[in-house]
Amino acid sequence: MASSHRIAAFIFTATTAIGSHASQFQELFQLAQANDPSYLAAQHTLESRLQIIPQANSALSPQISGNFTQNLALDARSDNHSYGVQMALPLRLDAYYGMKVAQQSAAGARISFEKTHQDLIFSVIERYVAVIKQQHQLFSSMAEVAAIEQRLKQTQQQVDLGITSIIQLQDVKANFQQLQVNLLQVRQNLTLARANLENLTNQALPEQLPALASSFSAASLVATNSLENWFALAQDNNLDLASNGFATQQAYHNYQVKDVSIYPKASISVSKNYSSLSGDSQTFSIGISGTFYDGGLNQAQTKEAKEAWFASSQRGQALVKATQQEIRRWHQALDTSRQQIQALAQLSSAVQASLAGKNTEYELGLRDLSDILDAEKLVFSAQRNWANARLDLVLNQLRLKKASGLLSSEDLSQLDQWFNWSQG
After folding, report:
1. How far apart are CA 409 and CA 166, in angstroms?
2. By CB count within 10 A, which of 21, 48, 247, 285 is most buried?
3. Are the CB atoms for 125 and 24 separated by under 8 Å?
């Protein structure tokens, strides 16, 4: 049977394969941008919502219109025609505030798309890491099957020599069969994880994705700021808070629109007309219109808009608390991940030493075979947990940045360095 050090080396080598070229995370993200229907829908939605700006501006812009009429006589009178051009300028206070509403709505639409953009970045990373975790599980399971298969051969030889009972052989066979069943499930989980990433990018993945480089450590991450600093960063950059800020301003301007809607509306127009019967004519007009009584409609609409403004402001306060709680959660998770990596590294060394000692005691007849099998399981489990803890450290760092609104394409370039893509 291979020693515990060879077991660890097998897993480590298998899970740190090197990629063929750099910038792979950027390429995966670009493929996701081009193929993810939700992201493409968000792009079209943004373009659609930005059209509210020219629509709102048109309410304050001059309107130019024209007309032409040709009259054909059905009696003794002669035919005649007329044409004219008119330019009108509306003077409406509610249209001015309506333009403010449109500006805030467009700004909110841009923030909403930026959030979709960050979500897609993180989705690519998260799905990639899910594949790597399943690769860890597969390589570990294969090594565990290989190890117990060798143990099975040794036990069979010992049974043939009459120095080991048939019961111990059956024990090893049962463990071997269980690991074979587990391996089937692991392969299925890896296939599903790969399909999840391929579904996002619409492109087949390489047979094996590069895992986290052996040189990566907690020191590779950016320095972790204090919790208060992360709160301040989130206050300035969190996209949910920014979106609510624009929504609150939009609600305020909408309240202004309703508040001034009761005021009279004015317009200025200039027209020039020609008729074959009466000749040229020019007109300059000033119009004023208003509502004397609307049954309380405007008052109710104004109150409704004012309450919506207040509600949006309060939602902002609730979002601040929720964002701080999310920052606190991932900040603590990041710190915990650092500690877990150190603890699991120590555990891995301890269980390997324990396995080596139990092997010696087994050879001296002081240990039962089941003790060795249990010790081997602990070695493989510790190796898997350590590898996955390193991945969780990366994810928690990115979750913290995402919660703060700081996740960007630059993080994809950083991941290329951490995940061996740039070493090919």
Report:
1. 60
2. 247
3. no
